[in-house]
Amino acid sequence: MGFSAADAADLRRYCGYGALGQQVTPASGYRFFTAYGVLEYRLANCAPEEASIAQSQLATLRGLEAAIPSAGQAMDTDGAAGWTRNRSEAQDRIRLYQWQRVELCRFLGVPPGPGLPSPDQTGQLSV
Q1: Each residue's pLDDT tens digit, 13-22
Q2: Residue 26 located in a structural domain
Q3: Is residue 114 in some structural domain?
Q4: Which of 1, 25, 58, 95 is in Cβ range 3.0-4.6 Å of 48 for a Cys bridge?
């Protein structure tokens, strides 16, 4: 079971790897970096059960990514009638989103790409 072109592009992006484009240029893309090649191989050859799990993770990541911008909508209010905003909501959402991206990489068996923040020495992602 393969992925649609849109799903494969999102999987690459969420794993922190850059776009391949329609035309491979010299010295770029997965042909010159082992991790890119491993990711492309996994996307092209995963079992239907694995593809189903990856599709589920894609849905989760899409939802988390869409929720980040809305976290800042109430940033001008500190408290109102018993409601107090979570000052770290945007940061918490980004941290959860980044963690889920790393989990996708772990599931696919590829190292997080250069587009993902590096974990610090405690294993936490820096935001």
Answers
A1: 999 988 877 6
A2: yes
A3: no
A4: 1
